Amino acid sequence: MSDIERTTFGPPDDTPILPWYGGAFSQAFVALHPFFTVEGLDPSACQHGTFSVLRSEVPEDADLLEWLDEEASRQGHGKELNADSVELISKRFGKKVDWSSIWRDVGFLDHCDLDTALRTNIHGLRSELEDHQLAKRLTSYCRQSGIFLPTEGSFQPLMQADLTKLFRRAGYSSVIAGDEFGDDDRLVDLALLEQQQPWAGMDELSRWGIRRLIAPDRRLLVWVHWDSFYTVIFGGKSIGAAGLCDLFEGFWCSQTTTTYWLTQPCIPLSR
Question: Of 235, 215, 211, 231, whose CA–CA distance to 18 is shortest?
């Protein structure tokens, strides 16, 4: 892999994040996807979050794609708002709820427990790492409290304004917005991303969605892991002065931190 490729993509799973970049980036910050509330909006009345089913839940004689379409339609029946509407409303009116307050209120040990619960809930962990009791406690608490769960694998609407603010603070007026595999990377003006419209579905961005933001000089990279509830910000010493902890809740990676940091000793949150 070339140096340019290495500074525009995320590291492989289970690989120490910072060493993989070979010195291209000296710091990495894990920004956690926030929970949120919207005044007057009940999450149970909205289509929001991952639609996921276990293969064992699908009838043996069913046409898989047809059954999934029918199941998705059934689960969405009677919902007041679809997922696109929730994204728009949350970006404009959502109020962030920190992980630190959630895991304390639910009675978890730390944010690693909370990450385990979130990923168990979307069937996103190997069976030996799942904890269905944690997932049940989390979803029950959020349902009773009117709190929306974060989503995985995409830039969160409630983080988008702060991500553009990060690039402005670093002195950039444009950014390369890239999909997961680099099939449709586009150089765009930051003003486009500063609009109130959520990034998903913007005609000017990749039709596959964007999972990477790259500074034109490759000195700053923002990458969201496809199956996780966090976004990683990579850079040099200057990102430490960019006020990341004022913008995002999260922690600084050590030299051994991997994409599956929930299995490692917990690094305290910086905010």
Answer: 235
Nearest to 148 by CA among 192, 225, 87: 87
Strand partners, 221: 214, 234
Can you list the residues of the chain whose pLDDT is less than 70? 1-6, 49-58, 60-79, 241
All structural domains of the chain with their residue ranges: 3-33+154-263, 35-145
92-103: per-residue pLDDT in tens?
999 999 999 999
Q: What does the alpha-carbon distance between residue 132 and residue 202 come to, in Å, rounded to a whole number? A: 36
The pTM score is 0.91
DSSP structure class, residue 46:
B
CA dihedral of residues 46, 48, 221, 26 (deg, nearest 10) = 110
Q: Rounded distance, CA 262 to CA 161, Å?
A: 27
Question: DSSP state, 187?
Answer: E
Query: Hey, what are 50's tokens?
Result: 């991952």
The torsion region of residue 49 among left (phi > 0), alpha (psi -120 to 50) and beta comes to: left
